[in-house]
Amino acid sequence: MNELLASKPESLREKLDNLPTQTGVYKHVDGSGTVLYVGKAKNLRSRVRSYYQNSRNHSRRIDVMVRKAVDVEVIVTDTEVEALILENNLIKEHQPRYNVNLRDDKTYPYICIKNERFPRVFKTRKRKQDGSKYFGPYTDVGQMNKMMDAIRSVFQLRTCSLKLDPEPIEAGKYDVCLQYHIDNCKGPCVGEQSHEDYMQTIDQVEKLLNGHTQELIDLLDDEMEKQSSKLNFEEAARLRDQISALEKYSQRQKIVSQDNADRDVFALHVDREEGVGCAVKFTVREGKMIGRRHTYVRRIEGRSEEEILLSFVEKYYTEANFFPDEVLLSVDPNDHPAQDTHALEQLLQREKGKQVVVKVPQRGDKASLIRMAKSNAKLLVGEWKTQQMKRERDRIPEAVKSLKKNLQMEALPRRIDGIDISHLGGTETVASCVVFTDGTPRKSEYRTYKIRTTEEGRPDDFKAMREVIQRRYSKIVEENGPWPDLLVVDGGKGQLSSAVQVLKEVEAYGKFQVIGIAKRLEEVFMPEDTDPVLIAKDDVALQLLQKVRNEAHRFAVTYQRKRRKKKTLHSELLDIHGIGPKTARDLLSRFGSVAKVKDAPEEEIAEVVGPAKAETVRSYFDKEAAEST
């Protein structure tokens, strides 16, 4: 690994190893999420990886950019032409610092029809979400300027920025300007042109900007004939040049913008094994793709692709503020008996004000858009899986990693079982098994065992260990899991030997590592090794083993105490006819012990359990006292 790559985050190095070999666009991003550079490539993997090779002779500008970059985002496309278009749109959107063609902050202009009562028509390089209409972008600024000149001279639209509301116009607050006197404006500011007439003119301008140039050419041609008949040859020549420019522009528009529709493209990729899907939306405006949006979908079990995609689309449009002419989907919800697009179509029609086509294209350019969106959805699912694996590795505690190293295990001990035996002078022998996952207790998987094979009053920890091992792991063998990575038994060589012997008998030995930990010197023993494993006292690995051992001991002792308490309760109170566990608990809670219940007056007992049961309890203990004397 070279020095440059070594300095980069592991997530970036992993992404570079898993880049697709398809055509597409890439973005270098810094630590704050700012896009530093946008580029296109025929082979994304080859091109992007070349930035991080020391042998490449990059310019200083690119070298600085690469050293700042901490992430790379890619969008795959079907063709190099699509990559070129997308690259240009993304550059205009993000204006990355290290793209050469934006160092002077240039971007292609639009013609704007402003959202006003008497709309102005002007050129701009910035698009605002204010209800205005934008046409373009125009790569030939000279031709666009000639178009603007033609619009002004033929349609006589206002160029002032006055707020032409009805009240100030009727009050006569405005005076006509020079544009009115030279016949470039019809004077809507003084009421010389009605709002209805002005908006009809705007409709004609929109037709022109959408490629309907013949009407304008005819108007110019008529005007040119009039000027020529008046012997105004200079003006006629100017109009002739405008007609020529419009004809060239018209031919060019037909080639570049054969389909000038606004459309949204939705596609889905689902990975059933991982239980995740990714829905992708491509935003196409005026025939040009200007952006991508995606959402990961979880809890997909039992849900069809039609249902998942339709949910994503409906949620998107309930929050949207722009509605396209057409919506393309990768699957047809109407093919699923429980899904249909009727509600979606109604929503779109209501918000758009006209019918919006929703369909699943099967061939042609629209089907190519769907394929490209699906490719990106699949790529994003792959990236999600890579990130999940990285997070999985990152969340493993250092103690687990250290334990693997100290015990020389092949796999990380992510699931650890801990077993302990507890008794009181050989009576009430019990066992516990606790479970730790990634160093954290999983109390829902704790288990306790009442030992059946030992004799009362004769403690035998080895025999008890053999019993609990046999009961627990014969069941795991039968059910084929869940297997631990490591079993920790409380004790030294003797306890470990007992555990190993039974594991072999139930055919579980060898499926996981087993060790013993002795309390006195905190020594760790492994099967078939005579000497203990030396783990430093301050090593987090030993601390984890102690934590498992101590938790197993605590849980076993707790269980044993519960059993003793239950036995005491049974022998003293539950022998009374008509007294159940709840009544016994209420009495002990009030008086604190059976002895105090024996000494309590019947009236006090009645306050807890009522007169009838109080009489029963009092009669039982009075009879017991009489018999003992």
Description:
With 629 residues, this protein is an alpha+beta fold. It has five domains: 3-102, GIY-YIG endonuclease (3-Layer(aba) Sandwich), CATH 3.40.1440; 128-256, no CATH class; 263-390, Nucleotidyltransferase, domain 5 (2-Layer Sandwich), CATH 3.30.420; 400-565, UvrC, RNAse H endonuclease domain (Nucleotidyltransferase, domain 5, 2-Layer Sandwich), CATH 3.30.420; 573-628, DNA polymerase, domain 1 (Orthogonal Bundle), CATH 1.10.150.20. Helix content is 47%, strand content 17%. It has helices at 3-6, 10-17, 44-50, 60-68, 80-94, 141-155, 166-170, 178-181, 195-209, 214-229, 233-256, 305-318, 342-352, 364-394, 398-407, 461-479, 493-505, 540-572, 581-591, 594-599, 602-609, 611-628, and strands at residues 24-29, 35-41, 71-76, 110-113, 121-124, 133-135, 263-271, 276-285, 288-298, 326-329, 357-359, 415-424, 427-437, 440-441, 447-450, 486-490, 513-518, 523-525. The strands form four sheets. Strands 12, 13, 14, 15, 16, 17 and 18 form a seven-stranded mixed beta sheet that branches. A hairpin with a 2-residue loop joins strand 12 and strand 13 (427-437). Helix 6 (141-155) crosses helix 11 (233-256), helix 15 packs across helix 18 (540-572) and helix 16 runs parallel beside helix 17 (493-505).
Unreliable residue runs: 100-106, 252-258
CATH homologous superfamily annotation of the largest domain: UvrC, RNAse H endonuclease domain
Q: Radius of gyration from the CA trace?
A: 41 Å
Distance between the first and last residues' Cα: 92 Å
